[in-house]
Amino acid sequence: MSFKKKYLSDNDAIYFIAEIGINHNGVFDLAVQMIDESKKSGASAVKFQKRDPKCLLLEGVEVEVPTGYLSQSPNDLPDESKAFGSWDYPDTRLEFTDEQHLELWKYSEKLGMDYIVSPWDENSLDFLDKNKAKVIKIASIDTSNFWFMELVASKKIPVIASVGMCNWAEINTTWQIFEKAGCPLMFLHCVSAYPSELKDKNLNCIPILQKLFNEDVGFSGHGTGATGTLGAVALGAEVIEKHVTLSRAMSGPDQNASLQFDEVESLIEESNNTKVALGTTNKIFQESEAVLHGVLTKKIILSKGVKKGDSFSHDNIRTVVTKSNQGLLPNRYYEVLNKVASKDLSKNHVLENSDLS
User: How far, in Å, CA of 148 to CA of 184, rounded?
Assistant: First the structure.
């Protein structure tokens, strides 16, 4: 069974992760509102980020005071001079407490959505382990952090890892770490640029990842259009992660590389429609094709009269529209060739099985 079916959802629909990330700007009520909007849009899960700056930074390194303005609501759209600044990393204004995460976690599950978190340090990882996370999401920057990957894999919690900024060798090493630990893993193809350009998306990596590891491969997109996601779905991705925001005009680190919720709803619908359109590899005559087939189809007729015992050949048969339900279809052509007439037949006669001997 695939990773998605076993650990995320056995629903046939696309599993869509609404990456709220840090777009709540550290405002708890905004996070709740974004969870509500994610649910309305049809998302399967919401995803947040969690950092403990004291654990994340080298001892003695000071946390810089960020100067970038953070919008406090969707209507708080500052002018350029007010918004100008920088967002130092880590920005402690964007971090929720353990208690706040647990409250958001409970609220998301109450709405029927999974609550997924990307841990950026050991303490945040331990928080997810202690609280029995269903799945852990690893950010691209840590997928090639083999020391941290060994620690994550040791928890035995199913992991989704983005592969932005990674090369093939690094991806393979991380896969081997999880294989050795017996920890389930799936990759999300990703380009870590905000927003990412179409020329950099390299969606053709998706089928290669699928073939290399014989496992589901999803897509984590940082663009504001639908092309990357729909292309990924067409290549077999059934787990999609996209950054979401209440408004791209809000001031904050990731807002301008995110989708607004009306766009999220449309993208989820288009993604599922694309999956439906992919269908199966069984190429057959579809019931839906019957009407047009009935209007356009031709039948095999005689282009000249034949005597009983004469052979049918390309020279004495042709195909025409007869507007009749009777007669042999053109796909019977090679069955008719070299058969002999069972009786005398005149020109323009519509051939039937009984005419063949």
Answer: 16
19 phi/psi in degrees, rounded to 5: -80, 90
pLDDT of residue 84: 65
Four-CA torsion 303, 306, 309, 310, nearest 10 degrees: -50
Q: Quick count: other Cβ atoms within 10 Å of Cβ 3?
A: 21
Radius of gyration of the chain (CA): 30
* CA distances to 151, 292, 313 from 308, in Å: 85, 35, 14
List, for residues 158-193, the tens digit of each pLDDT value: 999 999 999 999 999 999 999 999 999 999 999 998
The string of DSSP codes covering 139-181 is -HHHHT-HHHHHHHHHT---EEEE-TT--HHHHHHHHHHHHHH
- On the CB side of 12, CA atoms within 13 Å amount to 7
pLDDT in tens, 269-326: 999 999 999 999 999 999 999 999 999 999 999 999 999 999 999 999 999 999 999 9
Return the exposure string of 31-58: e unless at least 16 CB atoms fall within 10 Å of the residue's CB, then b: bebbbebbbebbbbbbbbbbbbbeebee
What is the pairing mode between strands 185-190 and 299-302? unpaired
**Residue 151 CB coordination number (10 Å):** 16
Q: How far is CA 1 from the centre of its chain?
A: 18
Pairing relationship of beta strands 239-245 and 45-50 according to DSSP bridges:
unpaired
